[in-house]
Amino acid sequence: MGSQTLSAGVIVVRREGDIWQYLLLRAYDYWDFPKGIVEGGEEPREAACREVREEAGLNDLVFSWGHDYRETEPYGPGKVARYYVAETSQTEVVLPISQELGRPEHHEYRWLGYGEARELLAPRVQPILDWVHALIKGKTSE
Predict the structure, then answer these.
(1) Looking at residue 123, which CATH number applies to its domain?
(2) Measuring CA to CA, which residue among 31, 33, 82, 88 is closest to residue 58?
(3) Which of 4, 28, 85, 125 has the fewest Cβ atoms nearer than 10 Å?
(4) How many domains, the chain?
(5) Which residues, in sequence order, are bridge partners of residue 110?
(6) Which residue range(s) make up the domain with 62?
(7) Measured between alpha carbons, how far is 51 from 61 in angstroms, rounded to an integer?
């Protein structure tokens, strides 16, 4: 196995009436879901939850659809991003100051519907959003 760098994140969703909204974070002009490098000895899902706390201040994640995940195609020098999906009831997102950077890691956040979110995401992340969208739709056809 090559020296792959695994980064783990969570596609955080919340329900606003009948609409599911997705949390996107912006760093410069790049939008993504909260994610970061899995540190040595850390379980990827724990890393993903830690990143959501560190990057968005959310700590009430509920893995309503289980612990299934999807990974992006490799990008950069052997990097892969793995995404889980979880629900939050918090609407207030905090962009905390990063210890390393001395400023928040992200410049902005938005809660967006599927279509808007898909337009902002990079092509390699769009299939992940599509997967989550189908998953959520499957669960909520009450």
Answers:
(1) 3.90.79.10
(2) 88
(3) 28
(4) 1
(5) 24
(6) 5-139
(7) 12
